[in-house]
Structures are given as C-alpha cells and as structure tokens.
Amino acid sequence: MRIPAHYKRHTSPLLTEKVLTAKKWAIYGNSEQNGAIVSVGNNSDFNTTGVLDNSISGKTNKVAVKVNLDAKQSTVIRFVLAWYDDSEPDWHYYLNLYNNPGDIAARGLEKFDTLKKQC
Prior knowledge:
Largest sheet: 4 strands, antiparallel
Structural class: alpha+beta
Number of helices: 3
Distance between the termini: 25 Å
Order of helices and strands: EEEEHEEHH
Helix content: 10-25%
C-alpha cells in the first residue's frame, strides 16, 4: 500500500493499538495478548526484529503486531482498514456518524467481533 506524505501516526489512549491515518483512510492494529508490541514505520531491520521503529518516513510504511507464543498457544491480532470519502455526503450514511477514518477504524476495533459475526 502506498502511503501519502501527509499521513500521521498516533497511539490511541483507549486501546493498545498503533495507527496510520490520512485524510481519507486509517489502519489500526491491536492484540489481546499482554506484552504484544504494536508498531508502525518502515525500518529495514523489521524482518529480523519483528518490530518497527515508530518513525514514519518515506512512501511505504506498515502497522505490525509482534507477539510471543508458546507451542500450541494462540492469540488474537486484529487489523482494521477504514476509509472515509466525503465527496458525496448524500451517498454515505456513515458521514453522519463519524468525522474521520480514525473514528471509523477505532469503532471497528471496538466492535470487531460483533461486526465479524454479522458479516
């Protein structure tokens, strides 16, 4: 995914997540596992460390969740990609409910299991 130069990264105080956001989209990631490391960035040692440097730069960045599992152990990792097109408000009901793609993605993580069951 190409990420425009005007995107931002922030950490939500309500969820243990890391976020990439731009005007029209947002990517959120989190994990239920204690000690999970959620990071963003594009550093070159990601393939060896599994952790990004939380520094946004260049044209391509990632959201990653690193967990340590014992044999036969499992955990839940979630990613939400949300978009927000306000070019035609009459066509998009969600514009009446949310102010930006970050709000939509945060709600997506909050209600992830419920939304998944309704699909």
